[in-house]
Amino acid sequence: LQQDLKDLAVVEERNRLAREIHDGLGASLSSLIIQSEYLTSLAKDEVLLKEIGEIKASAEESIEELRRSLRMMREDFDLGHGVEDYVKTFGERTQLPVKFEKSGEYIGKMSPESSLAMFRVLQELLTNALKHAKAKQVDVRLSFLPERVQLSVKDDGEGFDPETKRPGHYGLINLQERANKVGASVNVDAKPGAGVHVTFSVPLTE
User: Fold this and answer.
1) Long-range pairs, 67-70, Cβ under 8 A, ≥24
2) Whole-prediction pTM value?
């Protein structure tokens, strides 16, 4: 009973924080979008219009990220749809071809922390494929297996040698730290000139 009460208190506090963030930060971002639309109607200069458009796009992306995080806090986040929507949006925004496949049925339980960790890994890997690997194609696969959920991200970019230390690059360290926090396993298959293939696997609980 004590543990149940503690869990209930945690859920209530999460919901309270979610409301506060939604009403505060969410309202500010919505106001920024409205203001940028108003400025667009006034501006004539092409350079200024482009800058305003980028501000609006950043605000819209931030509010989507906020909504996604709030759903995770409320444990109302559908990982399958969330990953699929993000992959689609990322491809449209960056013009990088990203293929998405999903297999299996989600039959177990995944904590909000695990869902968030997997989603952050996806974001980081897609960003790396675009900015660092200079990939021309990325394949994303989300597999719901009987005892775990597995994310696979493969690109055809420049690749790298995982054994070579690269000062200022902390991607692999961040990846392993995220895995350690949620009891996940991570495998990085990379070679110079042969792209990168990362699998991130999270065990399910009863």
Assistant:
1) 67/26, 68/119, 69/21, 69/116, 70/18, 70/21, 70/22
2) 0.66
